[in-house]
Design brief:
The complex is a heterodimer. Chain A is built from 10 helices and 10 strands. Chain A is an alpha/beta fold. In chain A, strands 6-7-8-3-9-10 form a 6-stranded mixed sheet, sandwiched between helices. In chain A, strands 2-1-4-5 form a 4-stranded antiparallel sheet, with helices on one face. In chain A, helix 3 runs parallel beside helix 6 and helix 5 crosses helix 6. Chain A starts with 5 loop residues before the first strand and ends with a helix. The model of chain A has no long low-confidence stretch (mean pLDDT 90). By secondary structure, chain B is mainly alpha-helical. Chain B has one domain. In chain B, the strands form 2 sheets. Chain B has a two-stranded antiparallel sheet with strand order 1-4. Chain B has a two-stranded antiparallel sheet with strand order 2-3. In chain B, helix 1 packs antiparallel against helix 2, helix 3 crosses helix 10 and helix 11 crosses helix 13. The model of chain B has no long low-confidence stretch (mean pLDDT 91). The chains are: A alpha/beta, B mainly alpha.
């Protein structure tokens, strides 16, 4: 079943917290270059799945394989980030006292060790990359503003910009359009599609209109395992999905 | 703004120390400009406390590590210097023993304990001033940060650390003078400690080391390292997902801060003339946190300002109403926390910001 161009492979992952099964033998494949939407009701295990992939939570059993043969369950957060997995949180988390520019600077792929950052000087190459990202995320005029002073939508974009700066192979995005206006939602969909041209993306989202607009393969989670998978039309016609979402 | 205020602070510290030294050494006694020697030593003491405050601000203001045991590093640096000064006494002690300090003769020590060896050498003693607090901070920090202990829990164990050291140093078999500590120093690097010129030299040395500490701290907090550190302070988990290891950043700054505190303690001891286990008392560490809070956390300059002002107040207050000082200090802390969350420096910065647009408006028409 596992083929050459699988980027991420979750195999029978179980996680329980004090007897509550957050993930129940969850198995999932993601192809290289794919964008996948993950939906599911509250408590379906969407965020726990992200936690497992990024090393925040260690699964009780099961394997999480990234790329050719790296077992992510053996690594911690910084090591997984260094492998090229970026994560955007549900609530925008940027470094509030720093400027927009510095936020992206800190996210740029590069040496993360204190002995490097202590002496690091900004290079022309770094400046060019930051300029590029500011353009992509439409934040160029805000470069010198404190990140804490940005609007909610701008913070979301800044965080996406920081993810881009990390140059990850895989981006995990948790509810990127929560609290956004319709126009901002549309721009975000466009931004994600643009990012997906060079990277794989997993989007967790509640907003069905947004998922439809993305037009990608959808995985529906329920009680910690995959309930249904396929196009948005396929899953929204699936009687089990309808039952879970509308109740019995 | 903060760059300007730091330069002003450096100027104030250096200029103030030099002026006091000139006033003491050059002005004839009886002149209005004469500075008594006790005032020189008092000012030197304030500057040593200011170094401890800068060290506390570095970890608390910029890395969010609220250490309630930082005076332990200050005291360890002080003990290392005290051991050197004890060995310098030589045969001039009460018992006239060339090798053993008085308290060891009194306690029937037959020979110098192994950890006292080398302290007759000033270079070795100075090295220990840096190494002992640094290594303790390294071991403590490595254990604490690696297990992701933070917040209140970390504060509590730093407090426990200094309390444990307090109890250990009180014991006579620790070989460090028990509750009397180390005292009766005669000279330092062969120069008599009681001489006015030595006192002035120590004051100026304290000013120089405080200035160096401020410059190093400023370099660290404005570097890319410092930006990561502030990010760790506010959103530690986010920095992990960006690939940073917060524990490495905290450990570096914690050790640097402990070394600064140790140097402060080493300069403090010859000016005060004694080091005893009381310096490890948790209240001292808490006081140093109050200085920083009063001056303005996360500003470096505020730490210096807070340490000097609060200690000046303490000198005055304990002269007039000694029994009420702790109440006054507690009240000050509560008032600053409630009314001046940014400390004195935060207030000054706010005033400056308010004045600026007003001036711009005046200039406009």
């Amino acid at each position: 079943m596992m083929h050459q161009d699988t980027l991420l492979y979750l195999d029978g992952v179980n996680v329980s917290f004090d007897g509550f099964r957050a993930l129940n033998a969850l198995s999932l494949y993601l192809e290289k270059g794919e964008m996948r939407a993950v939906i599911g009701p509250n408590g379906a295990g969407k965020t726990t799945m992200m936690d497992v992939i990024t090393g925040k939570t260690r699964p009780d059993t099961g394997r999480v394989v990234f790329g050719n043969n790296t077992d992510l369950t053996k690594l911690d957060e910084p090591a997984i980030a260094a492998l090229g997995i970026g994560r955007k949180f549900q609530k925008p988390t940027v470094f509030e006292p720093h400027t927009v520019w510095d936020n992206i600077l800190l996210a740029l792929a590069g040496d993360r060790r204190p002995r490097f950052t202590l002496w690091a000087r900004q290079t022309g190459e770094e400046r060019d990359r930051i300029e590029d990202i500011l353009k992509t995320t439409r934040l160029a005029e805000h470069r010198n503003r404190r990140a804490g002073d940005l609007s909610h939508g701008q913070k979301q974009w800044l965080e996406i910009g920081m993810l881009l700066a990390q140059e990850p192979q895989l981006l995990l995005v948790d509810e990127p359009v929560a609290g956004m206006t319709d126009a901002e939602t549309e721009q975000t969909a466009e931004l994600l599609r643009e990012i997906n041209r060079t990277r794989s993306v997993v989007v967790v989202e509640h907003d069905m209109a947004f998922v439809r607009a993305l037009g990608v393969k959808v995985t529906v989670l329920h009680e910690g395992s995959v309930l249904s998978e396929g196009s948005i039309d396929h899953v929204s016609d699936d009687p089990r999905v309808i039952e879970v979402y509308l109740g019995r | 703004m903060s760059r300007v205020s730091l330069n002003l602070c450096l100027l104030g510290v250096m200029g103030g120390a030099v002026l006091l030294a000139i006033g003491n050494l050059m002005m004839p006694e009886g002149s209005a400009y004469h500075v008594p020697t006790y005032a020189v030593s008092l000012a030197g003491k304030y500057l040593c406390y200011a170094m401890l405050a800068v060290a506390v601000d570095l970890v608390w203001g910029f890395a969010g590590i609220l250490s309630l045991g930082h005076a332990a590093f200050f005291a360890l640096g002080g003990y290392a210097m005290g051991m050197y000064l004890m060995r310098q006494i030589g045969t001039r002690g009460v018992y006239g023993n060339a090798i053993l300090p008085d308290f060891m003769v009194f306690l029937n020590y037959k020979e110098l304990p192994w950890y006292w060896h080398g302290f007759d050498n000033p270079a070795f003693a100075i090295l220990m001033v840096v190494v002992i607090p640094g290594v303790l901070a390294l071991i403590f920090g490595w254990l604490a940060f690696r297990s992701r202990v933070s917040g209140v829990y970390l504060s509590i164990i730093t407090q426990a650390l200094t309390y444990a050291l307090l109890l250990a140093f009180f014991r006579n078999d620790m070989g460090l003078g028990g509750n009397n500590g180390l005292t009766d120093f005669k000279d330092m690097f062969g120069i008599p400690l009681q001489a006015d010129s030595t006192r002035c030299g120590l004051l100026v040395a304290s000013a120089i080391f405080l200035a160096l500490a401020l410059l190093v701290a400023r370099y660290v907090v404005t570097s890319r390292f410092g930006k990561v550190l502030i990010a760790v302070r506010d959103t530690e988990s986010r920095t992990r997902f960006l690939g940073y290891r917060p524990e490495a950043y905290k450990l570096f700054v914690f050790v640097l801060s402990a070394v600064m505190a140790g140097i402060g303690g080493a300069l403090y001891v010859p000016q005060i003339g004694i080091i005893n286990p009381g310096e490890f008392s948790p209240a001292n560490s808490i006081e140093s946190v109050i200085w920083v809070a009063v001056g303005g956390r996360g500003t470096l300059v505020g730490a210096v300002l807070g340490a000097v002002l609060v200690n000046f107040g303490k000198t005055i207050f304990t002269g007039v109403l000694p029994e009420l000082w702790l109440f006054a200090l507690g009240a000050l802390f509560i008032l600053v926390t409630l009314l001046l969350p940014g400390g004195i420096l935060g207030l000054l910065n706010r005033q400056a910001r308010r004045a600026k647009p007003a001036k711009a408006a005046e200039a406009a028409p």
